Structures are given as C-alpha cells and as structure tokens.
Amino acid sequence: MRHLLSTKDLGRAEAIQILDIAEDMADVQNREVKKLPTLRGKTVVNLFFEDSTRTRISFEAAAKRLSADVINFSAKGSSVSKGESLKDTAQTLAAMGADGVVIRHSASGAPQVLAQSDWIDAGVVNAGDGTHEHPTQALLDAFTMRRRLFPGDSRGRGLDGVSVVIVGDILHSRVARSNLWLLGTLGATVTFVAPATLVPVGADTWPVDLSFDLDATLALMQPDVVMMLRIQSERMNAAYFPSAREYGRQWGLDDERLARLRPDSIVMHPGPMNRGLEISAGAADSAQSTVLEQVANGVSIRMAVLYLLLSGEREALS
Ligand code: CP
C-alpha cells in the first residue's frame, strides 16, 4: 500500500491487518507514555483545503504519537487564496521534504491526482475528497463496530453477519461510500435509507439494499448498527431537501426510534452532528452511542495507516 485513497482498494486481509495494528496502537494509548519512536525523522503534512475538526486533529495526534514531525497546512490564510494551484502547493511541500501527505479537498479525486502526479514523492492519504471517499473514517467506523460488537474477541476478524443501516444524506456522503465498500469487504450487510432526493443516481448498482422508509427498515432488520449521517447543508440544493421538520419526522433518529432499537445495537455518527435534525440529543448522548469512541478510535486507526505507509512496512500489505 503506497497510498490510501479509497476503501475499494483494500482487500479483506489488508483491511483486517489495519484494524489489528490499530488495536496495538490503542494499547499504546492506554500506556502512561503514549508515544512510539517508529516515525522519528519522517515528516507528515496535513493539507486541508476544507474545514475539519476530528480528522485534522486526529491525524496530527497520530503522527505525533509515532514521533513524526507534523506540518499543518490550511488553505484558509495560505497562498491558495491568492490562486496557487494544487501542483504548486504540492511542489512547495515536496521541497520541504514531506514523506506523507494527508489531504482533504472539496474536489472528488484530488488525492488521486496528487498520488498519480510526479509533483511529490510521498505517501498520500485521502482525508475526505468531495462526495467521493473518506477511507480512514470508514476504517475507524469498522474498528468501532468490531470492538463494540465483539468485545475481547475483535482481533483477526471481519464483520461477518453484522447488519448496518446507514441513514440520511447519502447523496453527498463520502462516509457512506467508503463504508459501503469496506463493510462489504469485511462481510457486513449494508442498507442505505434516505429520502429519494438524497440517493445518488446509480446507487441501485451498489452492493447495498436501498430503502426510503426508516421505520419499516428498522422494524424488519433490527440491525446491529444504525449509522446516522450529517445533512450536508453546505452542499445542498433546496430541491434535494424535505423541510427540516419533515426530515426529522421521517428520517431522524429521535428518542422514540431509539427506544425501538435492540438494546444491544449501537448508534454511530461520524460528526459533526446536527442535533435535533438527523439525531436527537438523547440518541447522540445515549449509552448506545459510539460518537466519542469513534473520535478516540480515529487516532488509533490513523496511527496504523501512517505506520503502514511510512515506516517501511507498507510492502507487507501489498
Ligand atoms: N468525521 C469527520 O470527517 O469530521 P471532521 O469534518 O470534523 O474532520
């Protein structure tokens, strides 16, 4: 694995290896000294052309816990606002000796362009590109499911037989797309539930079940996992979206729907959440919610990915 651009590129053994290494990284984080010397002398650049809280901070924490040097680059306040191109920005970073580049960009495919270019010789990690993919989010989601659903017995296994219902703004969700491929590879069954206007054209060819009726789907499936997606208002055209009231009534995880879930099912959300729209405060803060665990697990997953890309161990995956 030279780069991590899409979960579609990951085979089952490769995906399980990343999850298992993340288990080791989680163990390190429970120690008094949370740092490993593994990436000493390496430089990781966080190249963020779009806003982020969780992903940017956890990549920074992950790189530092592996003893890498970290350069944080945000497009806001940089020469990108003066019109500097991705190529010139990348070549500037190359001149600074970047070994790994973590990139978030509003354009779907920007990480692929960077990885396939000769602008920079660095491992590239996709930290979210447009509506395309967010592979480390899917990996941390799978890691969280494995730990919650198979406590004490999570290493070495996939998610065979696990049922996952993903609800909401599928149209704009790179998290849904990355989860679709990874969860399938790991053996889970995935159902997408959304208003018809928030399902992308072509979704009927994806290896998932599609539904427009949340209550019927939850009653029928009694799923192990319910993952709520953020309504992405910033990418929304008014034509796509039912009123907020209508959306919450039909597709929101409110307290009443939460009470109808199996008590051992888990509630996930990648964040940031629109509380009161796609998820109620009661559901977000319930004992079934893994929202904060997902954030903590994100550091372990990103440590595993940086380790595999930059420590010289990456060939072990290919
Ligand atoms: N889940 C996620 O990508 O969150 P951020 O946008 O805060 O990074």
| Estimated share of beta-strand residues | 5-15%
The CATH class of the largest domain: Alpha Beta
**Secondary structural class:** alpha/beta
The 3D shape can be described as globular
Q: Give the strand tally.
A: 9
Instruction: Report the radius of gyration as a whole number of Å.
Output: 19 Å
Sheet with most strands: strand arrangement: 7-6-5-8-9
Name the CATH superfamily classification of the largest domain: Aspartate/ornithine carbamoyltransferase
Number of helices: 11
- Low-pLDDT stretches are 314-318
- Helix-strand sequence: HEHEHEHEHEHEEHEHHEHH
Plain-language structure description:
Catalyzes the condensation of carbamoyl phosphate and aspartate to form carbamoyl aspartate and inorganic phosphate, the committed step in the de novo pyrimidine nucleotide biosynthesis pathway. Belongs to the aspartate/ornithine carbamoyltransferase superfamily. ATCase family. One of its GO terms (cellular component) is cytosol. It catalyses: carbamoyl phosphate + L-aspartate = N-carbamoyl-L-aspartate + phosphate + H(+). GO terms for molecular function: amino acid binding; aspartate carbamoyltransferase activity. With 318 residues, the chain is an alpha/beta fold. It has helices spanning 12-29, 54-65, 86-95, 110-116, 135-149, 174-185, 214-221, 244-251, 255-260, 281-284, 291-310, and strands at 43-48, 69-74, 100-105, 123-129, 163-167, 189-193, 209-211, 225-228, 266-268. A five-stranded parallel β-sheet has the order 7-6-5-8-9, sandwiched between helices. It has two domains: 7-134 and 295-317, Rossmann fold; 135-290, Aspartate/ornithine carbamoyltransferase (Rossmann fold, 3-Layer(aba) Sandwich), CATH 3.40.50. It has eleven helices and nine strands. The model is unreliable at 314-318 (pLDDT under 50). Strand 5, helix 6 (174-185) and strand 6 (189-193) form a beta-alpha-beta unit. The site of phosphoric acid mono(formamide)ester has 10 residues, from helix 2.
